[in-house]
Amino acid sequence: MAVQETPEERAEQDRLILDAVDRFLERDVKPVAHDLEARDEYPREIVERMKELGLFGATIGEQYGGLGLSASTYAKIVERVSAVWMSVSGIFNSHLIMAQTVERAGTEEQKRRWLPRFASGELRGGIALTEPDAGTDLQGIRTRAVAEGNGYRVNGTKTWISNSVEGHILAVLVKTDPAAEPRHRGMSLMLIEKGAGVQVSRKLEKLGYKGIDSGELVFEDCFVPADNLVGGDEGRGLQQILGGLELGRINVAARGVGIARACLEDSVRYAQLRKTFGKPIAEHQAIQFKLADMATQCEAARLLVEQAAAAYDSGERCDMEAGMAKLFATEAAIHNSLEAMRLHGAYGYSKEFNIERYYRDAPLLAIGEGTNELQRIIIARQLVARNPA
Question: What is the pTM of this model?
Answer without folding.
Answer: 0.94
